[in-house]
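pipeline/complex-builder :: batch 7 item 3
reading input block
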Amino acid sequence: MKERNTTKQVRTEVEIAGVTLKNPVVTASGTFGSGMEYGDLTDLSQLGAVVTKGVANVPWAGNDVPRIAETPSGMMNAIGLQNPGIDTFIRRDLAFLEKVDTRVIVNVCGRSVEDYCEVVERLSDEKRVDLLEINISCPNVKEGGIAFGQDPKCAMEVTQAVKRAAKVPVIMKLSPNVTDIAEMARAVEAGGADAVSLINTLTGMKIDIHRRTFALANKTGGVSGPAIRPIAVRMVYQAAHAVKIPVIGMGGITCAEDALEFLMAGASAVAVGTAHFHDPLASVKTARGIAEFMEAEGVTDIRELIGCVE
Amino acid sequence: MEAEKVYVKALVREQKPVGTQIFSLLLEEKSIASMAKPGQFLSVYCRDQSRLLPRPISICEADPDAGTLRLVYRIAGEGTREFAGLRSGDTVQVLGPLGNGFPLQEAEGKKVFLIGGGIGIPPMVELARRLPGEKQIIAGYRDEVFLTKELSENGELFIATEDGSTGTKGTVLDCIRENGLHADVIYACGPTPMLRALKEYAAQEGIPCWLSLEQRMACGIGACLACVCKSVEKDEHSQVHNKRICAEGPVFEAGQICL
């Protein structure tokens, strides 16, 4: 952040909407809390940024259990965005992050445009927040429950509203549960987004054949993990070619090799998520592994790799 | 909650079956063995990368002097089947000790029930060992019994089996009634119907009751909010009526939670 973080001659810094990350590896929202729980297992300052679990204007209770199920090379979750609300988040989570030498990206969820804007306004005086990430995979209660991120017009409108309220750059996190991801990326870019991140989880379903019911109480859940990685790489590539704003890529990244696919497909940064459940050190190891790859391949600046596959 | 934990490769010292589909895994891991408290658990990771979630397994025994931990678990799927294939000299990735464990101080000067049901029985071994006072252990099995030697060495053991093959035919509560047992405090781990019945029994008897819960887990350390249970009061961490089983639990005072 303050000084250039380099391993030997390798430059790993990337820039997202004017904010410099010491390396391109961040945590995927919802898999890492606010870093507090991982802080005694891993060195958070080795990360490009901590992306916090989604926070709403008021506490959300989330879904009934079971909330998760393992799937082949992945998992499915329907936590239901349980969160303690913005007041507790500021008092506890942001206070914790005050002491951590990394960038802070606060993920915001809501059930209406007003919900999102209320959170964004409450965060506007918080100096610790470097970037906002808006989760538009939440159901829009006023539009019958379709996710904001599944309708280009809704996605653009929420982007415009959030941009008016925000004092820091805004990343719109896209849902992959759409026919044309490029169209969604263009819609939020048109709404003023400073960056996009993708992919959120893919909606799935698992049946427990012995109990003859759904594996999750919510019936459906979001699939994540290595199983979805090729889909994520394809969507990141399409989004990166559709917009001029930076793309943060994610979906099943477990190691540097996985992350490099996303960078080469056009992502300026990457997020490690579900892999933390298999290895709490996965994001830090990914960051280190990228630097090692660059050294081994004689790459001096990570920007040489970003989007190098046309 | 702020207990130390480590993410390490533990050395397998011994693996042996203790029942049908039930295995005992002895691990050498000095730091976890020295920190572990009865009722805590380990996240055990599969080597097969296609199974990416850790399996939470309770600590059956922890010997700080020998630096060993014993896990007793049932094969419930492909992950635990993989663990059953571990052999002496292998290593296995673990994270722990996790969770709060049973509050030993609540038993001071009191007569205690230690109640285990099925694969909830193993944590009662280390708990019995570390509780110095008067204690009666009630173990409920479907049919086949296991760990009876370890349990009877550390307290007065009563057995219930569903099929009546050993001890009382019926549930742990049937066993308590049949033997006319009474206690001042209860510690229990087992299937939810058993815990629900014990919660009700403890309320009727007017005695404190500590229950160890189970739920599917992902991170195991309180970050992902997968393994919650409903709480009576609004929880300080969540700000809603949810407590994290892996972090605030797995052991809760029965009156705090909804089952």
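note: The first strand of chain B starts at residue 6 and ends at 19.
queue -> next item
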